[in-house]
Specification:
single chain; 334 residues; alpha+beta; Jelly Rolls; 2 domains; two-stranded antiparallel sheet; 9 helices; globular; binds 2-oxoglutaric acid; binds fe (ii) ion
Length: 334
């Protein structure tokens, strides 16, 4: 009975404090634990989101990248990012003049958020690279590296990095709070009628009746200067910047997570979410070219999935085409 009372008290406390305090923190490791080796990283640590310390060595060229140098370069150039006034209504990617961005950041106003700004054209490109254990990437060099500059308070609502890509971000300075749902929770946090993810700042909760089920699986992470956060394909995430932050990041598709990438990419395709990048062609083109046995197994399974999916979607499209034609005529000329 004593224990039971204790349990009731604990549960009430949990309700008062909210779910956040009981969400599970993601794992935190050092790159030394897998000796900086790619295959070991993917086999032993990369099935779930993870924070990796010491991803770069002390003598890495990245350590000479300072915010002052970035500012100096962008003083007469534009940065690509988002105006935070659109946070509530939906993001529109725009050009932000360098001086405007940095003046704003220094005033602590942070009206803009630079994200996914490619560095391949900048003088930093030669000095920057993903850490070597994230070096295998079928997306190629250009897609490899981008700049993140975000003022305190910047907020990225729940999304999944597109087309089954792995995601990583290394913070040179700052702090970011991540909230993450596993891929199997996608149907619980995704409104298939409105076609959007749950956004705590905007969404009507009644559109997400199963949110509390997803919350049982929710993970959190606090990434700080010197931390690299890694997410496998399909993990849905939301990010709040709690200190002015500066870092680099990138997306990856490779043999080590080919199956998860294809499963995520095909899921998006099945829901007609994306059609900008054809992951299936990329993976089919890698048949028989894997560098490791582990990767070979992944690629084989991914190809099998593509083949099954293609058959199923062909069957279904016979039913879908007339259905879509109906939608088009019902909604006028849209
Ligand atoms: O830093 C952010 O606000 C968003 C980061 C993100 O979504 C990503 O790196 O994939
Ligand atoms: Fe993302």
């Amino acid at each position: 009975m004593k224990n039971f009372n204790g349990f009731v008290l604990f549960s009430l406390l949990a309700c008062f404090l909210g779910h956040e305090s009981f969400a599970k923190e993601i794992r935190r490791i050092s790159a030394k634990e897998f000796n900086g080796e790619t295959e070991r990283f993917y086999r032993e640590f990369a099935q779930e989101p993870v924070i990796i310390e010491e991803a770069y060595g002390d003598d890495d060229e990245l350590k000479s990248l300072t915010l002052d140098r970035v500012e100096d370069y962008f003083k007469d150039r534009v940065l690509y990012g988002y105006n935070r006034k659109n946070d509530e209504t939906g993001r529109v990617r725009e050009e932000i003049p360098g001086p405007v961005f940095f003046a704003d950041l220094k005033r602590g106003a942070s009206s803009y958020y630079v994200f996914d700004h490619e560095v391949s054209e900048s003088p930093f490109a030669g000095q920057l690279a993903p850490p070597s254990f994230l070096g295998q990437n079928w997306l190629g060099e250009d897609h490899n590296l981008s700049l993140t500059l975000s003022g305190k308070g910047s907020f990225t609502p729940f999304h999944e990095d597109g087309s089954g890509e792995q995601a990583w971000m290394y913070l040179v300075t700052g702090e970011k709070h991540w909230v993450i749902y596993p891929p199997q929770c996608r149907p619980l946090v995704w409104d298939s009628l409105y076609k959007d993810f749950f956004n705590p700042r905007k969404s009507d909760r009644s559109r997400f009746p199963y949110l509390s089920c997803a919350d049982a699986e929710r993970l959190t992470a606090v990434a700080r200067a010197g931390d690299l956060i890694f997410l496998p394909p399909g993990w849905i995430h939301q990010v709040l910047t709690t200190e002015d932050s500066f870092g680099i990041g990138g997306n990856i598709v490779n043999e080590f997570q080919a199956l998860a990438s294809v499963a995520t990419g095909l899921n998006e395709k099945s829901h007609a979410l994306r059609h900008d990048f054809d992951l299936t062609q990329l993976v089919l083109g890698k048949r028989g070219q894997s560098v490791t046995e582990y990767g070979q197994g992944q690629v084989n399974q991914a190809i099998e999935l593509i083949e099954v999916w293609s058959h199923r979607i062909r069957d279904k499209s016979d039913q879908l085409v007339p259905l879509l034609a109906g939608v088009r005529s019902e909604s006028g000329s849209n």
